[in-house]
Design goal:
This protein is an alpha/beta fold and 302 residues long. The chain contains 10 helices and 8 strands. The chain has a single domain, classed as 3-Layer(aba) Sandwich (Arginase, Chain A), CATH 3.40.800. Helix 6 links the parallel strand 5 and strand 6.
């Protein structure tokens, strides 16, 4: 099931509003169909109308982001109940305020723990008090793990335990986030650790924990997890990201695990892309997650 979330209120640069249609144009649904999956595209979610305020003057588009969160929480909850694999097409990463909350509520209904794999250059672990940029795409992970300071957001219907959150590819962390991550006990693997030990080792250990707990696994894939040399279409580029092979290895291991129950594709900004390069790569990565093997992948010039 495909669900569009053309959110850009949480970002600092416009363009993510075009993300869902870029994935569609890049052939996401057709690719899934070719792999034998039944595909239903439910179109785009619309935000609810809410009005909230906060004392941090740096924050922008708070009411709009809270409206998206409320709408996406319900949409994700419904999709998780009705589909084996809802895929949320973003949109900036603030969409995960709603998508993770919604799928976590469904997991709680099933008496299963919700796990989250966060593939991102940034931990997005700011609160409304700690953010200095005011860009609310930097807050979802703190919100859905139940950190304090989110009274302006919708009430959290279910919490992801911080120890059930694994972050891979991190390489840009603000001091306030670093302290909060340490206090919360989130499992964080930055690019230094990946350079030293590889990306398979921490992912394999995390997947074993999900399996042992009979958990549900949500994957949130941010374009800036990838190195900007291969994925330029993001407004928050950070050099030194995952390579083409590292990213496909992650997706192939996730496919082999048969544990993934929902997926975010976020921060694609088609306005910054080069002939659709990033959109096509994100579709190819999704294909690896959904069952396409190396020998099935067509040769393509990027």
């Amino acid at each position: 099931m495909l669900i569009g979330a053309p959110v850009q209120s949480g970002a600092g640069r416009p363009g993510c509003i075009m993300g869902p249609d870029a994935y569609r144009t890049a052939g996401l649904a057709e690719m899934l169909g070719s792999l034998g999956h039944q595909v239903e595209d439910r179109g785009n979610v619309a935000p609810r109308q809410v009005q909230v305020t906060h004392g941090n003057a740096a924050i922008h588009h708070l009411s709009e982001t809270a409206g998206w969160a409320a709408a996406l929480t319900q949409a994700a909850y419904d999709a998780a109940a009705q589909s084996d694999m809802p895929i949320f097409l973003g949109g900036d990463h603030s969409l995960s305020i709603g998508t993770v909350a919604g799928v976590a509520k469904h997991a709680a209904d099933q008496s299963q723990p919700q796990f989250v794999l966060w593939l991102d250059a940034h931990p997005d672990f700011h609160t409304l008090e700690s953010t200095t940029s005011g860009n609310l795409h930097g807050t979802p992970a703190a919100y859905f793990t139940g950190q304090a300071g989110f009274e302006a957001y919708p009430d959290l219907p279910a919490t992801v335990a911080p120890e059930n959150l694994c972050m891979l590819g991190i390489r840009s962390v603000d001091p306030a986030e670093n302290a909060a991550l340490n206090d919360a006990g989130v499992d964080v693997h930055d690019m230094r650790a990946i350079d030293e030990h590889g990306i398979a080792t921490p992912l394999r250990a995390f997947l074993e924990r999900v399996r042992d707990a009979n958990g549900r696994l949500h994957v949130s894939l941010d374009v800036d997890f990838l190195d900007p040399a291969i994925a330029p279409a993001v407004g928050t580029t950070v050099p030194g990201g995952a390579t083409f092979r590292e990213a496909h290895l992650v997706m192939e291991m996730l496919c082999d695990s048969d544990l993934v129950t929902s997926l975010d594709l976020v921060e694609l900004n088609p306005f910054l892309d080069v002939r659709g390069q990033t959109a096509r790569l994100m579709v190819d990565l999704t294909a690896s997650l959904m069952g396409r093997k190396v020998l099935d992948r067509p040769t393509r010039s990027f």
